[in-house]
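Extended Data, panel c. Modelled sequence:
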Amino acid sequence: MKKYSSVSSNSFSSTTIELDNETDTDTFINKVRTAIANVAIPEAAEDPKISELSTESDRMFTLLLYAPSDLYDLSSLKDKAVQIKDILISTP
């Protein structure tokens, strides 16, 4: 990973991951899906959405987490985003 950033607000968390150009996209997407599967996403949350944003020189992915604010507060979703980041960083 070249860069990782995350922004959270009440009921919503958005994570952007910028990859080195040498990174295999398919392998990385599988790594993200595995990381998500290893984090207990709140049951009332929508399924995380992964989007690829690519140009000729840059490849980025956005991961969106959403759960109703009356069930999960900002810190809960932010914790989930941090857990996913930790898994991605620690997994080769």
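Residues 3-90 form a domain with the Alpha-Beta Plaits fold (CATH 3.30.70). This feature is highlighted in the accompanying rendering.
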